[in-house]
Structures are given as structure tokens and as C-alpha cells.
Request: fold
Amino acid sequence: DLQRLKEDADCNRRNSLLPPILGYRKHGYQNTPSPVVLEGDFFDPNLPLGDPFDVIVGNPPWASRQEHGTALTEWMQSSENPYLTDFKKRKINSRAALFPAKQIAVPFLWKAGLHLRADGQAGVLLPSQVLLNQTDVFQAEWFRRFTADRVTHLADFRKFLFQDARRPCFVLRFNVQPPQDNGRIEYFVPKVSRRDPRNGLIPVSASDRIWISQAELQEAAGAGQAARLWKTRLWGTPRDVKLLDYLV
Reply:
């Protein structure tokens, strides 16, 4: 769409509708004085991202495999990655924390936090496997560094929102402030009710709004049960969870 708009507006014309907005890598991003859209790889150290952002909104690629030697995998092991020092000091498996199940959406999540202002907000669309697979090391490390304001799990709306969706997804809204020990994560788990036929409308009932405490999540991740915590809260009511606790 941007390329078509560029052609229609003739951005290179002196009295064009828009100024040049696309910065190209082959020109060192110097082909326009103030590029709005940068061609490049988010993990390329030469990408001039500039000052931290007030808001980051993204839908990073979803893939469970990534070849070695890419900018993403090089960033994970480079000095540009500030998390490595702490992982080595605390003997944390850096690959399990940064790249669980070879899911390339997770490194985007880590790096986004480096480009967000202290009072900024980020909203990212992620595959549900980031929470529902065995990603306990990642969850323990990431959720202890960032404050997750809200997790909206859209698993039940997968085919309504994205007709050809192969995987369920969730929206994570977070900031870079360290979470409080007594902090809680607002967990929205809307279910399809078919009460409203309008496309794209997602009603959230009172029973679909759940709170997960920071201490509870850390305990579950430490025991290798983080996925179980999210799954039981996704489909189970508080009474169901209480029953499961009694049975265990």
C-alpha cells in the first residue's frame, strides 16, 4: 500500500503530495531527510531506529525454526544483547530464555523492550504457543523484567478474526517497568457466544476477566507448570481451578 501511495503521490516530485517517506538500506537511509518507513531487519545493528519510542505495536513473524547466521541469531549472541551478561552470571540457559522452541517471535519481544521509553507502552500479537508450550525459562525471565499490563487470549476467536489461521494467538500489552512483587496480570479470555453478529467485535464477560499474580506465575514457571497455569485460567472458572487444587 505504501509503495502504491508513493507512486500515486509521486513523492520525488518537487510539489508532491507527500515528502519522501521510505528510507532504503542500499542508500544508507540517506535518500530522504526524515524517513518514516525504514527498509531493513529489526535485528540489524546498522538500522537507525533513533530515540526510544512512546508506543510499539507489532505483529512479529511466527515461525518455529530459524536458520543460523541470520541477524536475529547473531544479535542473540552479540554484545548488542544486554541480557546475556545477567544470564551467564545466574547460569540461565540463554537459548531457552531468548529463543524457546526456536520461536522467532520471542526475540522480537525481548528486543522491543530495549526501544521503549520508561513510560512507554507496547502491544504485540503473539502465537499462543509462547505461553502454552514448555517455555518456563523464558516466562520466568521475561515476566520478572517487564510489567505485563494485560494478556488477551484470542484462542476461541481464531477462525473469526483470521479465517485461515493455523494457530491461536494472544495480545500482550506491557511496559519496561519491573513488576511489583504483589503485582497482577489482567488476563482476558473471551469466548465466542454468537450473541453479536458484527465482525471483529469481541465481548468480554465478567467471568472472562481473570487476574494472575506475579508470584503465582513465577512459582508455576519455577516448577515447570507455567503452561498449565495459563491453560487452566483460559478454560477453567475459579471454581474449576479450586476443584483441581483439591484433586491434586
In short: The two ends are 54 Å apart (CA to CA). Strands lie at 22-23, 37-38, 53-58, 116-127, 147-153, 169-175, 184-188, 209-213.
